Amino acid sequence: MSTAMDTESTYSGYSHYSGHSKKAHRQGRDRHKSPRSKDGSRSEKSVTIQTPPAEPLLGNDASRAEEGQDDNWGETTTAITGTSEHSISQEDIARISKDLEDSVGLDCKRYLGLTVAAVLGLLVFLTPIAFILLPQILWRDDLEPCGTVCEGLFISVAFKLLILLIGTWALFFRQPKADIPRVFVFRALLLVLIFLFVFSYWLFYGVRILDSKDTNYQGIVQYAVSLVDALLFIHYLAIVLLELRQLQPMFTIKVVRSTDGESRYYSLGHLSIQRAALVVLENYYKDFTVYNPALLTASKSRAAKHMAGLKVYNVDGNNASGQSRAMIAAAARRRDSSHNELYYEEADHERRVKKRRARLVVAVEEAFTHIKRLQAEEQQKAPGEMMDPREAAQAIFPSMARALQKYLRTTRQQQYHSMESILQHLSFCITNNMTPKAFLERYLNPGPTLQYDRDRWFSKQWTLVSEEAVTSGLQDGIVFVLKCLDFSLVVNVKKIPFIKLSEEFIDPKSHKFVLRLQSETSV
């Protein structure tokens, strides 16, 4: 218990670091550059897809702790106090105001569509009931008596309306996953069809029943039943258009991340470009590895060194021509030897990764062995003196912290794993009695984007760039791009080819044969 409290007090000072101000300066500089990057693509048709805000994976305390934490959590650090200056430019203010206006416009459009759909749905469900009740209210004394068949129609209307209500709730009342830039065409067509259908029924009801005060009450009830039956058929049509039509694969799309070239293939049915973009983003967060810009710094530095060796000098006079030729020859030799540098650099990096990995595996196995020993000792103590998984994780974390930090730095993953997230994962593994291999799986194998903390990868805004209208359907050869702040996803659409299968009949007797042995054998 004392070890855990000492460890907790040692790590409790990780709230303010000097790296926080540098990080804020870099973020402010990136925000300063972002408006200029958007202005360069004014000639393209671009629309914006915004995902609804979601709660962070960690609590408020954990998120505040991660904001103030740098990447040196495995070593001895010093908590310092000071002031950090934050500056904001006019471009940042204009960008923030534009984002606010866009978000307000999208929210208004979303709530307007929901309001129209809710009002129309309420009108649909109240119309059959109104058809039955209005004659009873207005000219009840003149109506013919309702017989057994008429009373049975009341039960039919009630159950059909209940089925329609459940089906409508299951099909339309869902939590929206994203805000699409344009209206969903099939959904809008269904709303228009329902409005015209109900309006025509009301028009006929007003002219032929209300004006003439029809006394045939059974016919009026049958008219309401026919309306409910037609609404059930429209609901079936909505299921076909919104759900079943897109199930059959018709296109194969290739999604390529622009920075590192990682790609995936998916099969889609008949979808519009904006809905296909939503499918791509949903699969991106679970299939693609997390975007790590630190892995691109080595290739950029190597390319800069290569370009530095290929400088062209302007030499005045004919006497210096031999010196210029010598410089060009030296640059060519340096260019020819660049592949050797790349080979030895990658070999050395793999050797260091294997070495750090072996040290990390040994350190984690020893830490988990220590946990088992502590658990055996805690079982002999009183129930009130036992440590919880959080305290046990804090007790064994210092023994593996340095090895884990060196491995994450070597593989350039340190920015995605904070001390708080590692402690939470370690306490989770201890709670569920998981092995060291299960604990290390998150760090040894780069996982999908959803595996990491939301604040480190989640992009609230994506921009869809397409030459075609985003409401048009997918076609063979269409290319569209999904852009965020750091990278873009290039999507290429190919139609699945028509496959023709033929059948060939094989006679079962063709497989039979006769084996004849010679009667004479050699002695």
From TrEMBL:
Region called Disordered, residue ranges:
1-86
Q: Which InterPro entries match?
A: VANGL
Does the keyword Membrane belong to this entry? yes
Q: Where is the signal peptide?
A: none
- Membrane-spanning intervals of the chain: 111-133, 153-172, 184-204, 224-244
- Report biased composition (Basic residues) as residue ranges: 19-35
Q: How does it sit in the membrane?
A: Multi-pass membrane protein
What ranges does the record list as Polar residues composition bias? Answer: 1-10, 74-86
Q: Where is the composition biased (Basic and acidic residues)?
A: 36-45
The GO cellular component terms are:
plasma membrane
Q: Does the keyword Cell membrane apply?
A: yes
Question: Which cellular compartments is it found in?
Answer: Cell membrane
* UniProt KW keywords: Cell membrane, Membrane, Transmembrane, Transmembrane helix
Q: Record's family? A: Belongs to the Vang family.
Any idea what this protein is called? VANG1 protein
Gene, per the UniProt record: Vangl1
